[in-house]
Amino acid sequence: MPTSFPPWTPEHEQIRDTVLRFTHQHLTPHRHDWDKAQEWPAREVFAEMGRLGLLGLRFSPEVGGLGLDWWSTAAYVEALTEAKNGGVVMSILVNTDMATPIIDEIGTPEQKEEFLAPVVRGEKIAALGVTEPGCGSDVAGLRTTARKDGGDYVINGAKTYITNGAIADFITLAVRTGDEGHFGVSLVLFPTNTPGFTVGRKLDKLGTRSVDSCELHFDNCRIPQRYLLGQENAGFIHIMTNFQGERLVAAVMANAGMEAQIRDAIQYATDREAFGRPVMKFQVWKHKFAELLTAVKASKMLGYHAVDVLVSGEDPTLAVSQAKLFAADLAQKVAYECLQVHGGYGFIEEYDICRAFRDVRLLPIGGGTSEVMKEIIAKWSGF
Question: With 75 labelled, which of 21, 178, 311, 369 sits at a CA distance of 20 to 30 A?
């Protein structure tokens, strides 16, 4: 472990400061309105982020990225979380850290130019299409098919819970090109203006309401075979590798969100008086926040350890799974206690903790459930 941990550099802090300024100016002031409207001006915001160079931190300079490390991403995610709107943060991270890194890693130069470079510039929006009706965490069981016909793939099937599904210009799409199981899965880049593609229901969710999560339908959709990402029937391993980054940013986001919730709750408890003195003067709340702060510090260290493992080049699967499991489950407790100290006001939508309480419930589900994380940890621990 480095002598200074986390090993923040002036470059990392510059990224954090830039993202914080952007977030406080363009995102945080609209957190209530966008959540209530169940939409946000994604194209306008992404265009501004692209202008500032905030959509391709780790991507190669050839596509307009900055070629930075995972610590830069951690600083970016922590600052972005100050938007205090889980839906908006999720939409941005799908675009930068879930649907697109695999293109930078294994895409052809032509694919990068057509799909990735416009995302970095803020001109296109991406979605990740893996989950299907009836097989959430079971990626090997997906049934959307891509059949070769001439120089095309003909795609049929359905996806669900797809973040950015209604606004995406293209989808990094998991399809079945071979036999059942792991070894018949491929990834393709799917433009959403393809004939036969339709957006179904925009799902009415408990939380992360600012961004859409949709059902998607593919009816004899033709795309050229040059949109195959990587090798045919080798998509499963790429999806599993991509999941590590997705789960890691989820853990970092959860930790930063918990810190913000505790900070706001302590401020509320300091200002709010009950029985003639500030709520924060009661020992029960002093001890409660001492406990929460300690747990969140431990969770942050697990997350930073996972970043360190990833940066070192080691397999991050165990570290990432532990970080996501711990942060996702702890986030439920932190949101509960921070809402509780607000009393009745915590039950009112105008308070940030009310929205946070709803938003964090996705963390033990999305990107791999806590139950799946436990199974991975058990496997890597040899039992």
Answer: 369
Which tokens sit at 191?
């433009």
Distance from C-alpha of 175 to C-alpha of 184, rounded to nearest angstrom: 8
- Reference 126, options 189, 194, 217, 52; nearest CA is 189
The single residue of 78, 82, 114, 246 carrying the catalytic annotation is 246
246 catalytic? Reply is: yes
pLDDT over 70, % of the chain: 99
Please say whether the beta carbons of 270 and 96 come within 8 A: no
Global pTM reads 0.96
> In the structure, what pLDDT confidence band is assigned to residue 123 with cuts at 50, 70 and 90?
very high
Instruction: Report the pLDDT value the prediction gives residue 3, as an integer from 0 to 100.
Output: 60
End-to-end CA distance of the chain: 27
Longest dimension (CA), the chain: 79
Residue type, position 377, single letter: I
Omega before residue 61 within 30° of 0, cis: no
SS3 144: coil
Give CA–CA dist 147/138, Å, rounded. 21
**pLDDT on residue 80:** 99
| β-strand partners of 155 | 146, 221
Calculate the alpha carbon distances from 341 to 184, 269, 291, 349 in Å: 51, 7, 14, 15
**Tally of helices (H runs) and strands (E runs) in the chain:** 13, 10
Distance CA 296, CA 293 (A): 5
The domains located in the chain, with CATH, are 10-125 (1.10.540.10), 127-233 (2.40.110.10), 236-380 (1.20.140.10)
Q: How many other CB atoms are found less than 10 A from the CB of residue 290? A: 10
Strands 228-229 and 185-191: antiparallel
> With the CA atoms of 325, 81, 268 and 326 taken in that order, what torsion angle do they form, in degrees rounded to the nearest 10?
10
A 10 A CB-CB count for 86 gives 27
Interatomic CA distance for residues 63 and 124, integer angstroms = 13
The runs of H, that is alpha helices, within 178-234 are none
Q: Please, which contacts does 371-379 make with residues 24 or more away whose CB atoms are closer than 8 Å?
A: 372/137, 373/247, 373/321, 373/322, 373/324, 373/325, 373/328, 374/325, 376/317, 376/318, 376/321, 377/318, 377/321, 377/322, 377/325
